[in-house]
Amino acid sequence: MSTQDIIDTLAGIEPGSALDAIRARRLQARENAQKSYLSLFEPIDASDFSLAERAAVAAFVMGLHGESAVAAFYRDKLAANADGARLLAAIEAEIARGGTSGPYGSYPAGPLSVENTAGLIYRVSAASKSALGIRLVAALEHAHLLVFRPRDAASADMKALLDAGWSNTGIVTFSQLVAFLSFQVRVVSGLRTLAAANA
Amino acid sequence: MSATVNPPVVFTQDELGWVSWIDPLPEADLTERHYAGLVDRARAKSEYFRLLVRDPEVLEARTKTDKDIFYNVADGLPRAERELAAAATSRYNGCIYCASVHARFASTYSKRREDVQRLLDEGVKADLGERWNAVVKASVALAATPIAFGPDNIADLRRAGLEDAEIVDVINGASFFNWANRLMLSLGEPSK
After folding, report:
1. Which of A137, A179, B41, B68 has its CA 20 to 30 A from that of A125?
2. Could you tell me which of B29, B146, B153, B107 has the C-alpha nearest to residue A100?
3. pLDDT category, A1, cuts 50, 70, 90?
């Protein structure tokens, strides 16, 4: 099991630094952000969501965020997977196609409708579909929704995942993975920015 | 299930319900592994937590991360402003359910219910005074994809009187709600 703290590593926080001391005052948060990472990427049970699928979704999500150090970490994680090399080219092609800026999307019809903002409704390219397979095609399309336009999510999106072979438990872990990564990359980016302001 | 849902169409500080779009575990099926994941046994009554407990290890770690970021007030940012970061992030991402809960907490701890309501009504550009504006602006910059948080946000927060430990609380609180919002928005929907 990895003992290296991923947020510290990706944010470049050195032992003994001012930010290390600040993070040490929230030890439970620090340790459990790490445990969240480990339970998603080194799980007890991967039967509903394989390790290769987790790595592929993570590489896609972090590629969409465009934070280079974090994206490289998850791209390497996918490449190191037994199934990774086969998936990596397709994931990289899909990151290039899926890039946009968010959050955008629609609210329930009513007074908030004036805030509705249109944007890319991403679908996996025909060229990538055979390399990815039906489960990952559905996963990437749903991950893009979660990254850029979570307020557009609807019950039909759950049905699309179920129809593609995702179990209820698999959907929960998949949703946690994308949502956790949305947290992790922001903590890394925020702490890096703070450290740079102090340098 | 959708027949019972009466979804709210505005941001509110009222108490809302939440209905899952996929199947939570039945309470009768919960084992000790699941209760460990729930952290608080009383959460077995919540449909949301009985859904997330399908992956108990992730839920346990997430819950403990959440509790420390928001409830560990031995030092750092006052509770009200951690809740403000959560409410602003939720307002910006469009999570009516999360915004209702954390706007209510922000009002309770700050005693500034009308300012909190203006954040909900007018959105994240509402003028709430220098210190709250800096917290809201930083939270919004962090929630954007690609992330837009930069040195100007740090400078704003410092000008408003925040020390580094407090800035880390803003970063953690806002970042955490990018996790929470995506679960609440995508696995089910709020109900009045």
Report:
1. A179
2. B146
3. very low
Model confidence over A6-43: pLDDT tens digits?
A: 999 999 999 999 999 999 999 999 999 999 999 999 99
Q: Answer whether A25 sits within 8 Å of B146, measured CB to CB.
A: no
User: Which tokens hold the place of B73?
Assistant: 């007030």
Taking Cα atoms as reference points, which of B5, B166, B11 lies closest to residue B102? B11
| Min distance A177 CA to chain B CA atoms (Å) | 9
pLDDT digit string, tens, across residues A104-151:
999 999 999 999 999 999 999 999 999 999 999 999 999 999 999 999
Side chain identity, residue B170: V
Distances in Å between the alpha carbon of A184 and those of A148, B142, B180, B181?
Answer: 16, 11, 12, 14
Give this prediction's pTM. Answer: 0.98
Alpha-carbon gap: A129 to the closest alpha carbon of chain B (Å): 24
Contact B94 A23 (CB under 8 A): no
Select from A60, A193, A198 the residue whose CB has the most chain B CBs within 10 Å, as the one to mutate to test that interface.
A193
The count of residues in chain B is 192
**Tens digits of residue pLDDT in B88-136:** 999 999 999 999 999 999 999 999 999 999 999 999 999 999 999 999 9
E strand spans, chain B: 17-20, 188-191
Is A172 close to B155, i.e. CB distance below 8 A? Answer: no
| Cα first-last separation, chain B | 14
Q: Is A50 helix (H, G, I), strand (E, B) or coil?
A: coil
Contact A28 B64 (CB under 8 A): yes
Best mutation site among A57, A107, A168, A172 for testing chain B: the one with the most B CBs within 10 Å?
A172
* Burial of residue A28, with CB atoms counted within 10 A of its CB: 0-12 exposed, 13-18 middle, 19 or more buried: middle
Q: How confident is the model at residue A85 (pLDDT cuts 50, 70, 90)?
A: confident
